[in-house]
Amino acid sequence: MLIADFPAGPLAANCYVVAPEAGAECVIVDPGQQATEGVARLLDEYRLTPVAVLLTHGHFDHVWSAEEVCQTHDIAAYAHAADRPLLSDPARGVDPGLAAQLAALFGNEQLREPKQVVEVTDGQVLQLAGLEITVAHAPGHTPGSVVYALPPTEDTPEVLFTGDLLFAGSIGRTDFPGGDHAAIMRSLSRVCLSRGDDTVVLPGHGPRTTIGRERATNPFLRGL
User: Fold this and answer.
1) Quick one: signal sequence residues (predicted)?
2) Model pLDDT for residues 170-196, shown as the tens digit of each residue
3) Is the pTM of this model over 0.85?
4) Measuring CA to CA, which residue among 150, 162, 154, 155 is closest to residue 187?
5) CATH code (residue 168)
6) How far apart are the C-alpha atoms of 128 and 148, rounded to whole Å?
7) Cα–Cα distance between 31 and 64 in angstroms, integer?
């Protein structure tokens, strides 16, 4: 399994490229702000051919470059229907102050959703790039937040791409429009804490961690 990543943009949102091995097809997870060059670098370095973009949620720092990446490679973006409006109107997912900053950034330019969008659902299994990827709807940070899970193999534990649901030592904020604290706690319990301790967590920001480490040390998970 090949998983390469880099932090993209001012908010350092993690963008991941995932493939069975070098020289194979791949998927790209969360190409955010200023991610296009980083994606191109990883594709060239590992000789990868992208077949899909997977979006964990619709916030601008995770989807900013999705349309450009999809157009460049003629591939579809996968996202939950509840967050699809954010792909073309990022201001809907943030507070008014940040929305004003986004308007200043974009000017007259409008963010567009990718030409091809595939809406994912809870429990759906995607067969992409030779990978089996299971979708878990995990609302709370946004209504359409999802986690993408890769099953364990003989050599590797299960891997979760958690977006802004779970971080090392923290969880996603719920004070933006569409956020719901009770919902994110239910999602953390159902989607994350139901996994084995060796499950690898690849979050939307910050370093990777494991379910076992977060179960033992993350103060936001106490009592779940």
Assistant:
1) none
2) 999 999 999 999 999 999 999 999 999
3) yes
4) 162
5) 3.60.15.10
6) 12
7) 7
